Known about the structure:
This protein is α+β, with helices and mostly antiparallel strands. The protein is built from four helices and four strands; from the N terminus they run βαβααββα. The chain has a single domain, classed as 3-Layer(aba) Sandwich (Glutaredoxin). A hairpin with a 2-residue loop joins β3 and β4.
Amino acid sequence: MKKLYGSYLCPDCLPAIEFLENNNIDFEFVNITDSISSLKEFLYLRDNEAAFDNIKKENFVGIPCLVDNGKIYFQEEILNNEL
């Protein structure tokens, strides 16, 4: 199952959620601002995956990000259907 990490507070996440839903792509939404455990899950991923290196250098959070079988997709890749 695909996991989309994001937050309803993030304006970039809502279009990604809508895109996935409108294209009938099954995913679990992990709202990182909903609980400490969800935030910790995301931070562990972000702190241990090289895909986030440039994002962290630019002081961005890194959401929305979709994880599918170990592959990480970010906003542009999701909205351009590069899944």
